[in-house]
Structure formats: structure tokens, C-alpha cells
């Protein structure tokens, strides 16, 4: 009598799926990584780590998707929902997989051609079902942390999701809020209210004013969480690796079915202003490692934050016995930071320091320069005159220097008030520039109290002064602010932006930003790996090496960091867009192009050499699909 045939009918998706992740083809991904970076993928080690069955690697169908599904259990109690969680991998055949897994434990036939088994060790054990599958692979292994997870999800993952169209990107993931809202939405306000009451009670001080302000703040956050959860429809993430072009790109979309929450409203606030970057953006320094722009903000929606935050600050400072005038001064600083703001831009960059330069033992001056270089520089530009920013910085310095606030800082830091950082703000002189003011933060360290490796400094050594500077410059109807610990660099950056948006030292002359010019975006900009590489090569790591490390290998790696083929300067474009509809979407995108991939590959190569990585066999991937015909 013939054995019964397995059920190969298509299974529909369960009603309460809350998350799906699909990895289109591990084989193609592994091939791409090895081609780009020369790093072999240890498939057998991965298989052993996941299943504790290294021999099973030969049975894996790595050209088929790897899937993850999370679904609500309709029978689980609301107080302990314990959702179903399962992942599945393609297998070359049921028989080949069965023979591979039989070496690591018994298989129990639970249906025609379907077997139950347990894989892993101790707390890492998973319960699995092996059986025939629809889709790219003839069989699938579906596993979950509990036996019931595999039983609940195996039919859909093997004969539903596996038969669905493949994702258009290498990795596709989505989270759906609908099932959670339907089941737990009515309970969420009361649950959060209980949590809010508990938190307010736990952090209560007995001070009525402070406790009332704290309760208002916690309640406001609670209400916003409820509204935001009800607004959200889902989250979608996609990642693509373009092997031939050596490009990595990704999207993350937040989908909203409504906009009742404060957060959702802010995300779409400037939807009608999407377009090319503002002209102010192109005036930023070309030497930037990262630079971004935004469309400004309306201060009216922040009235609640100003009020609640101001009340909380005043109550907290009154609880600390600080004078009312002092608490009012600090509260105003907070509130004025949440007023309307114009179009603004920002940039940051590194400061070059000699590769391999080390601070000699006890050479605190050299260490200070290296650490200052590692901090780099930051710059902001505003499409308005400097009056408001000037007033805020002046008020900030005045508030910090109030005697009662100084005494409070000294008490909290257990320091003599004379040793607190000094802050002053006022006009300053910069050669070739006018209308510049400076906020200077300085701290003096007595060398007799600061030794290297426990070695005390000479008692007659001059004190070491650490400084951080904020320079503010008026530029017609614009304002520029440069920040950092290396003042000459800040002055140089201000001179570059003063030349306007078409100077040779500005972003208008930098290549690789063409995509920003042509896209309609809400916010955007770029980042690069130059800043990280420079800090590692000549800044912070050099300072640390000089402080307590010595390694020729490290010096060689640092040298490679400074000699990347594209110097880490290729822009990684990052943008956001908003789209009205049902649902509405806010999408964040990034794109890393060939220059970035080449630089990372050069770093990977030297790190691999120093780690003396042994060669590892990689499962042979299928040949890549031919490109679509051009029309």
C-alpha cells in the first residue's frame, strides 16, 4: 500500500501576524560579501552555532529565502501573550536533511514526509519540523523556541510564505501594528496609566510642587505613547546589495493610519516644503565628514513641552533650595530652546593629526592636542540674524555663573568652586572676520595632581588648560556657529562659509552629492567614514596608545586607516521623505556607493591579515541571475 502523500496545498497567512522578515538569498549575500571584502563566510560554523549540527550545512538550500515570522497566539491570555515565533530555512531535500540531522538526535515522523526534531544544546535548544515545501526549495526546516511555535507556524512558513513572491530587495522586514492594536489597544491606556502612577510614586520626593510637575510630565509622555501606538500602521525595512555596482542601499518606512499623536504631526509638519536642499546647505565647509539640513520648525506645537518642562525645572531647583530667580533663569533657557526655528543646516568634521604620533609618558600637552583633534569640529547655520542665538548664549553664560548655581555644581561634583569650568561669552577678534562672538569654556588642571601612569608631575609645572569654544558669526541675514576644542580650525571654517555658497571650500564644490540636488526630500544630507577613520588613526586611539599601549601592529593598522583608496570621503547619502495617503508614510533612505565599499574593503583586508583569519570554505552559491533587459 502506497504511503499517503503529503499535503501540498497553499496555506493562507494567519490572521494575527505581527512581523515578517525575509532574507532573499543567503548564497547571493555571502557571495557579494566575499567578492567585495574578501571575507569568506564560514557556513559550517554558522550552521553549528545555530543548530549544533555542522554536517547539516551541506543540506541547506542557501539560494532559498530564510524567513522569520512572529504571530499572536489567539489562545494565550492577554496578561501573558507569548506570541508564536518561528524561523525557517530551505533544505535541498527532506531525505538529505533527515540523514544529516539523524546524526544529532532522533527524528519522529508526525505526518506524511514531516519529521519533528530538536536541535541545539541546553538552553539554546529549538523545536523543529522538517517537511516538504512549496517555493524555491523542495523542503523546509521550521523551528521555534517551543514545540507549539513550530506546530503553529510550519504549515504557513512551508506552504504559504515560501510560495509567496520573493522580496525585491535582499532583506525585507515589516512590523504590523493592527493585530496588536485590535487585541491590546483597549487595555493600553489603563496599563500605561497604572505604570505612570507607579513611576510617579517611585520617584516621588514628598515635595508637592516637584511631584506634581513630575506627574504632569509622566502623564504627558503616557498620553503621547497611547496616541502614537494608535496612529502607527506599520514599519517596513528593506536592504539591497547591488553586487556589480558595489552599492548598499536601504529604506525604513513608518506608516501611519492617522495623525492624532504629537509625534506623527511633527513628522508631516514640513511635508509641503519638500524639495532640493536649501541654498544655505551648499555654503557648509567642503571638508565636512557629515552635513545635514532641515526645513525648520513651528514653535506653537511645543507649547506643552515648554510649560511642563519649565514647571519641572522650577520645581526641581526649588527642591534643591536654589533661589527663584536662578530657577527662572534656567527654565527660560529650556523654554527658549523650543521656539520656532528657521531653516537650518549642520556639519561636522575631523582634525588631522599625525598618524602614529604618540604622547610620551607624562606629555599631557600632546595628549590634550590629540584629544582635541579627536573631538573634531561642528558647525550650524541658521537662516536668520544672530540676535536670538546671541541672547540665548549670553543668558546661558549668565545663568551658569550665578553664585548659587556655582555653589550647587561644586557641591554635586565635590569640588572647590574655583576648580569648576569657567564660562564666558562676549565679542572676540578673528582676523578677516567681523561680528564674531565667542562662548569659551575653560578648565584648568593642576599638573601636580595629574600624573601619567601614576607618575606625579613636577610641582613647578604650569597648569594644563583645557578649552572648548563656540564661535557665533553674523553673515547678513544668516548666522553661523562653529564649535570645537581647536580654535584655529573653527576660525578657518567660518572664513570658508563667509565666502558664500559658491566658494571652493564649500559643499557646492564637492562631488558625490548630485543625488541630493535632484531629489525632493524633507530632510537629508550625508555622512562618511572619514571622521571615524581619522579619529582612530590620528586622534583618540593615538592618545590612548601613547597613554598605555604600544603596538607596531596597531600603528600599521592606523596607517592603513589614513591611506584608504578614497580616504573615507565618499558621501553616504541619507534622506527622508513624507507621503500623504492611506496609510501616510515617512521614509528614511541611505545609499553607500562604491567608494565607501572600497574603503571598507581595504580596512577589512588589513584587519583580516592581523587577525590571521584561516581560510574557510564557503557553500558554493548559484550563479547570479542575469540583469533585466534594458528598454
Q: Can you lay out the helices and strands and say which pair or pack?
A:
Blueprint: E1 17-23, H1 26-37, H2 43-51, E2 66-71, E3 84-91, H3 94-101, E4 108-111, E5 114-119, E6 126-132, E7 139-144, H4 147-159, E8 171-176, H5 178-184, H6 188-202, H7 208-231, E9 232-242, E10 247-256, H8 262-267, E11 290-294, H9 303-319, H10 324-336, E12 344-349, H11 364-375, E13 377-382, H12 387-400, H13 403-413, E14 422-427, E15 436-445, E16 464-475, E17 478-484, H14 487-498, H15 514-518, E18 523-527, H16 530-538, H17 540-548, H18 552-562, E19 572-579, E20 584-592, H19 594-611
Antiparallel strand pairs: 1-2, 1-8, 2-3, 3-7, 4-5, 5-6, 6-7, 8-9, 9-10, 10-20, 11-12, 11-18, 12-13, 13-17, 14-15, 15-16, 16-17, 18-19, 19-20
Helix pairs in contact: 6-7, 7-9, 9-10, 10-12, 11-16, 11-17, 16-17, 16-18, 18-19
Structure description:
The chain has 631 residues and is of the alpha+beta class. The chain has two domains: 160 residues, no CATH class; 300 residues, no CATH class. It contains 19 helices and 20 strands. It has a 20-stranded antiparallel β-sheet, with helices on both faces. A hairpin with a 6-residue loop joins strand 5 and strand 6. It is globular. The chain starts with 16 loop residues before the first strand and ends in a 20-residue tail after the last helix.
